[in-house]
Design a protein that fits this description.
Elements lengths: L2 H14 L9 H27 L13 H12 L10 H28 L6
Helix pairs in contact: 2-3, 2-4, 3-4
Length: 121
């Protein structure tokens, strides 16, 4: 082994001594955690709105079923039906998708930071 190789290995070993190795599946775990959290946030939002919300017709969403309940809940998230001056299903779906993605990114990033944090001395 040359002197250069020896110096390189020593410097490399010193540079990673405090950090340690990144766990093998850290990226997969962080992504999975983020996806689960984002999905949970979106589903929880729809379930909450469906439980306590009112459709644009004045009917409680909880009394509706099937596609009517789903559409009414998503439209309520979007500010109400288009006919009532709200953003409708399109805006509701956009809010759910964007909100779920934001939660997924935030939680996934947090999980990544936790999984790859430096070791305490």
């Amino acid at each position: 082994m040359s002197k250069f190789d020896e110096k390189f290995e020593k410097k490399f070993d010193d540079s990673v001594k405090d950090v340690g190795e990144i766990p093998k599946n850290a990226k997969k775990k962080a992504i999975a955690t983020g996806v689960v959290a984002g999905t949970g946030a979106a589903v929880g939002t729809v379930a909450t709105v469906a439980a306590i919300g009112t459709a644009s017709t004045g009917t409680a969403i909880a009394t509706l079923s099937g596609a009517a309940a789903t559409n009414a809940a998503v439209a309520a998230i979007g500010g109400g039906a288009l006919a009532a001056g709200g953003g409708g299903i399109a805006l509701g779906a956009t809010i759910l998708t964007g909100g779920g993605a934001a939660v997924a990114l935030a939680v996934g990033y947090g999980a990544w930071k936790i999984l790859t944090r430096k070791k305490k001395k």
